[in-house]
């Protein structure tokens, strides 16, 4: 979605143009002679960064920037930058902004006023003169390059993006672009109070990612739902890693024709979303419980796994999350044990003697595959009116501190395990009767999220 806005009062005195080889598109750069000389682009690296009227923390707050937002840096101001954020000029703390001398970024429309603006072939007055923009013309700013704006003018613009992503399993490590990345995941079921499976607005999809990042997670299991491509676009853009899943609940896994109930749509999902770099794995089934007393057909899970690997050999595939595994690149387990001491003792055995604690070991056998606990926690905490139908896992804590300490103990048991490459906490926000989210159904925080950010972002034992 392109944000179109006019930058009032921005006087573009001298314009240079960088001619792109692309259909009818002419892109240009121009020197940043707006209110003051712009020196670069800044990327906000935290949520809720405040734009202030003066370069100190005691003055008026003009706006709050979100993680990943871009600002135009006007000049250095000690511990602050003087910036232009969404047409407001103010100061932001320098330590939370990454400076980019060159950056492709949409800043909106600018007005040419007072006199003609020269268009040149390069961001230099030595570049070839291509044309002139006249007063009243409105070039659209799409980038910044060493003090010059890059703009489009006089034609349609088509933009896309790409990401370079390599995924490999190395022993127990999960490597993304060659680096061991601990997956600090949260269960996200993609529910909304009004639309259920439909987000009210694009900003609501963005918010779900932002509140997860604010709690210290770096990704999510997109659980029992084929998420919107728009959501995946924002995951790509914000560097948020996700697992692609399928809503298999209610399927009779014992039926001879069960494969026709999942395979066509599952193949369509994998093919549709193959190019999203944010997706780092596939999981077509979740907890394939017995149906009317009948066990799953193992050949169903094996066939879907093999076809998934034929469609996409670049990503790991979990055949069925939690139970009952047949053929899988990763052997994950679900465990809602609420006592942190017992929880830790159970999974410490993976390091001490190679035994993975599994409540379903009579139906599935662990053979040393990479592993993680892909569902845990689910601690109940109800905010506001108590609903008799509300539930979570285990006995609910009596105080906020008890909740936090239980969360800390369970999570640190997995972060400290040398052979665990990740975790997935249940869940990000409340859903209908499920009152075990860190946020409410309306995405309001139940606790101080800086506490959870600190717990979740601690370095994991398996990370380099």
Keywords for this structure?
single chain; 464 residues; disordered N terminus; 6-stranded mixed beta sheet; 7-stranded parallel beta sheet; 7 helices; alpha/beta
- State the share of residues found in helices, binned by percent: 10-25%
What characteristic shape results from the CA principal axes?
globular
| Major β-sheet strand ordering | 22-21-20-19-27-26-25
Q: What's the end-to-end separation, in Å? A: 37 Å
What is the makeup of the main sheet?
A: 7 strands, parallel
Radius of gyration: 26 Å
Could you walk me through the main structural features you see in this protein, from its secondary elements to its overall organization?
19% of the residues lie in helices and 28% in strands. It is an alpha/beta fold. A 7-stranded parallel sheet has the order 22-21-20-19-27-26-25, with helices on one face. It has a 6-stranded mixed sheet with strand order 1-11-14-15-3-2, with no helix packed on it. Helix 1 crosses helix 2, helix 5 (340-353) runs parallel beside helix 6 (400-415) and helix 6 (400-415) runs parallel beside helix 7 (449-456).
Question: Secondary-structure map with pairings?
Answer:
Layout: E1 6-7, E2 16-18, E3 27-31, E4 40-44, E5 49-52, E6 61-65, E7 70-77, E8 80-85, E9 88-93, E10 97-100, E11 102-110, E12 117-120, E13 129-133, E14 140-145, E15 148-152, E16 167-170, E17 173-176, E18 179-180, E19 183-188, H1 202-214, E20 219-222, H2 229-238, E21 241-245, H3 263-273, E22 279-283, E23 285-286, H4 298-311, E24 320-321, E25 333-335, H5 340-353, E26 371-377, H6 400-415, E27 420-426, H7 449-456
Parallel strand pairs: 1-11, 19-20, 19-27, 20-21, 21-22, 23-24, 25-26, 26-27
Antiparallel strand pairs: 2-3, 3-15, 4-7, 4-10, 5-6, 7-8, 8-9, 11-14, 12-13, 14-15, 16-17, 17-18
Helix pairs in contact: 1-2, 3-4, 5-6, 6-7
């Amino acid at each position: 979605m392109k944000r179109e806005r006019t930058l009032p009062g921005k006087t573009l005195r001298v314009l240079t143009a960088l001619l792109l080889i692309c259909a009818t598109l002419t892109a240009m750069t121009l020197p940043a002679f707006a209110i003051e000389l712009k020196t670069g682009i800044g990327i906000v690296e935290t949520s809720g960064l405040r734009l202030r009227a003066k370069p100190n923390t005691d003055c008026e707050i003009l706006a709050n920037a979100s993680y990943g937002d871009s600002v135009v840096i006007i000049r250095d101001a000690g511990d602050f930058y003087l910036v232009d954020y969404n047409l407001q000029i103010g100061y932001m703390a320098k330590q939370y902004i990454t400076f980019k001398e060159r950056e492709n970024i949409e800043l909106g429309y600018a007005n040419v006023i007072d006199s003609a603006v020269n268009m040149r072939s390069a961001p230099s007055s030595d570049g070839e003169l291509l044309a002139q923009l006249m007063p009243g013309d409105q070039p659209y700013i799409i980038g910044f390059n060493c003090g010059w704006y890059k703009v489009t003018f006089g034609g349609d613009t088509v933009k896309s993006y790409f990401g370079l992503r390599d995924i490999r399993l190395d022993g127990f490590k999960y490597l993304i672009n060659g680096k061991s990345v601990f997956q600090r995941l949260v269960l996200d079921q993609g529910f909304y109070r009004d639309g259920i499976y439909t987000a009210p607005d694009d900003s609501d999809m963005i918010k779900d990612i932002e509140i997860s990042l604010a709690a210290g997670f770096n990704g999510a299991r997109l659980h029992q739902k084929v998420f919107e491509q728009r959501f995946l676009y924002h995951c790509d853009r914000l560097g948020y890693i996700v697992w692609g899943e399928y809503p298999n609940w209610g399927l009779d896994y014992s039926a001879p024709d069960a494969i026709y109930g999942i395979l066509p749509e599952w193949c369509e999902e994998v093919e549709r979303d193959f190019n999203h770099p944010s997706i780092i794995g596939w999981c077509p089934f979740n907890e394939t419980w017995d149906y009317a007393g009948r066990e799953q057909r193992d050949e169903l899970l094996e066939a879907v796994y093999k076809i998934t690997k034929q469609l996409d050999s670049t990503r790991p595939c979990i055949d069925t999350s939690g139970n009952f595994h047949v053929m899988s690149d990763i052997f994950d387990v679900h465990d809602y044990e609420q006592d942190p001491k017992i929880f830790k003792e159970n999974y410490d055995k993976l390091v001490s003697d190679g035994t993975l604690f599994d409540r379903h070991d009579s139906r599935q056998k662990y053979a040393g595959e990479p592993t993680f606990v892909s569902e845990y926690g689910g601690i109940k905490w109800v905010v506001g009116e108590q609903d008799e139908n509300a539930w979570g896992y285990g006995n609910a804590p009596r105080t906020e501190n008890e909740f936090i300490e239980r969360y800390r103990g369970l999570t640190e048991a997995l972060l400290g395990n040398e052979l665990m490459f990740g975790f997935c906490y249940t869940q990000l926000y409340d859903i209908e009767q499920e009152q075990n989210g860190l946020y409410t159904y309306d995405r309001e925080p139940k606790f101080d999220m800086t506490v959870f950010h600190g717990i979740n972002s601690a370095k994991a034992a398996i990370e380099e």
